[in-house]
Amino acid sequence: MEHHEKLILHMDMDCFFAAVEQRDHPELKGKPVIVGGLSGRGVVSTASYEARKFGVHSAMPMSTARRKCPDGIFLAGNYRRYEAVSAQIFEILSRFSPLVEPLSIDEGFLDLTGMERLMKGTPKAYGQKLKESILSETGLVASVGIAPNKFLAKLASDLEKPDGLVVISERDVHRILWPLPISKLWGVGRKTEDRLSLFGYRIIGDIAKARPEILENQVGTKLARQLKELANGKDNRPVEPYREAKSIGRETTFEEDLMSREEAEQCLLSLSAQVGWRLRRDGKEARTVQVKIRLSDFSTYTRQRTLPGTVCYDDDIFREAKGLFRSFL
Ligand code: TTP
Ligand code: MG
Questions:
Q1: Domain spans in the chain, listed from the N-terminal domain onward
Q2: Which residue would you say has higher pLDDT here, 245 or 126?
Q3: Which ligand gives the minimal distance to the CA of 85?
Q4: Span 1-168: which CATH code?
Q5: Fold: same for 1-168 and 176-231
Q6: Binning pLDDT at 50, 70 and 90, where does residue 175 land?
Q7: What is the pLDDT of residues 185-238, one digit of tens each?
Q8: What is the CATH number of domain 176-231?
Q9: How high does pLDDT run on average in the chain?
Q10: Is 74 in the pocket of ligand 1 (CB under 6 A)?
Q11: Rounded to the nearest whole angstrom, what is the distance from the C-alpha of residue 95 to the centroid of ligand 2?
Q12: Which H helix or E strand runs over 31?
């Protein structure tokens, strides 16, 4: 068997919810469109590029967005519609690789390793073909990154957004990666960034050049090793395709926000009973119970607990689900 260098593609739709709105309502094209929770405590899900010019971005309180962009068009959005468009996009992705890993509603990884012959051209041309298929079949614009691993592919898709198509090869790593801020490293959130900057690390090159022993002393062995690898453009996480669910779930969406705990728990009981029915019908038992909550601004939270034993009866499932639900409140 020939040894194959890995080739990974990452695709991420441009301002996804807002782009779907602009496509479905052409009068919104070229306008600042802001999608999110419109209630008092709502936050922005996303904003069109026209609105981003005013400094509006995801997760910003809606009240701030209204102040920054008073002439914006504010929409509550339609999550079911976005999910349907997402399914259409993933169907297209599945024609471009047998290994597709969905990451979120609008992004995913494709493993293109060993597909050179099938591609009939350069990886970049293949990426272009994917973008064209998405555009012609959905009317929406995707950004694509292609690289030898997941970390670099995701970074690449973001480099020239919107409508980006960037290929990073092994030899570009230093030139492209090292000048970027450390926050671009996978696993470096706000907290880690603050800690690293206390030690004087600002750009990825600083991490790449740091003496391993010193970095290990500063942030611990595990994180230091991970950061070193990434800063040198190395990442061997595999693309993990979606497999047949090992779980049984039921969910429901409300037209109106639920106002009381009683209402919510009533609904949880009914969902628990539906899950229990399926489990017992299929002769299965579950070890882990998970509760997912989505608020009106689409922000989603999950809580789960792995039990010492297994469950399949409604009241056992409900007892766990209720406990998890209460831990949110
Ligand atoms: P993203 O891909 O992060 O953002 P985006 O597609 O809107 O913009 P970009 O061009 O920068 O990729 O998220 C995809 C969708 O997920 C986004 O359209 C709305 C939703 N979302 C939220 O609801 N809340 C959030 O905080 C974020 C980041 C996204
Ligand atoms: Mg996106």
A1: 1-168, 176-231, 261-328
A2: 126
A3: 1
A4: 3.30.70.270
A5: no
A6: very high
A7: 998 988 899 999 999 999 999 999 999 999 999 999 999 999 999 999 999 999
A8: 1.10.150.20
A9: 92
A10: no
A11: 20
A12: none
- Residue 107 bears catalytic tag: yes
Q: Measure the CA–CA gap between 248 and 150, rounded to whole angstroms.
A: 29
What is the DSSP annotation of 134-183?
A: HHHHHS--EEEEEESSHHHHHHHHHHT-SS-EEE--GGGHHHHHTTSBGG
Percent of the chain surpassing pLDDT 70? 98
| Residues in Cβ contact with 165 at an 8 Å cutoff, skipping those fewer than 6 apart | 124, 127, 128, 131, 143, 144
Q: Which fold has domain 261-328?
A: Dna Ligase; domain 1 (3.30.1490)
pTM: 0.78
Amino acid making up residue 23: R
Identify the helix (H) or strand (E) that includes residue 12.
strand 8-13
Query: Given the structure tokens 């949110």, which residue do they identify?
Result: 328
Per DSSP, the three-state class of 112 is: coil
